[in-house]
Amino acid sequence: MIAEYKNRIHVLVVAGVLVQLLVPFVAFHESGAAYGAGFALGAAGTLSLVAGFCYYAKARGHHPAWGLLGLVLGLIAIIILAWLPDRTQDEPGGDAAPTAD
User: Fold this and answer.
1) Taking a C-beta distance cutoff of 8 angstroms, is the pair 67, 54 a contact?
2) 42 in Cβ contact with 23 (< 8 Å)
3) Pick from 57, 61, 62, 101: CA 20 to 30 A from residue 80's CA?
């Protein structure tokens, strides 16, 4: 795994999960404004989660589009991404230099 992406993965995935956990507390109130705020929080949490998954796929040497599985499968996508082989194991130490995209 490319070490450069590890911090980004942790921040984005943890932030996405935490924000999505806040959605039920915000969205299910009596006011209509709370529904809008809940939707916005849910969308922000999902985008953060998917961005973290994209970095995870890229860190393992795969195309970042694999992270889009998070849009459909949510947290189940991380199980699928974990099954993908790590293509960065070629160099000693397990990390390969990041490639320019």
Assistant:
1) yes
2) yes
3) 101
In a 13 Å sphere around the CA of 86, the CA atoms on its Cβ side amount to 14
**Are 53 and 66 a contacting pair, CB within 8 Å?**
yes
SS (H, E, C) 26-87: HHCCCCHHHHHHHHHHHHHHHHHHHHHHHHHHHHCCCCHHHHHHHHHHCCHHHHHHHHCCCC
- Which residues are CB-contacts of 7 (< 8 A; sequence separation ≥ 6)? none
pTM of this structure: 0.77
Q: What is the CA radius of gyration of the chain?
A: 16
* Residue 4 Cα distances to 46, 58, 62, angstroms: 23, 11, 15
Q: Give 60-94 pLDDT, tens digit per residue.
A: 999 999 999 988 988 888 899 999 999 887 644 45
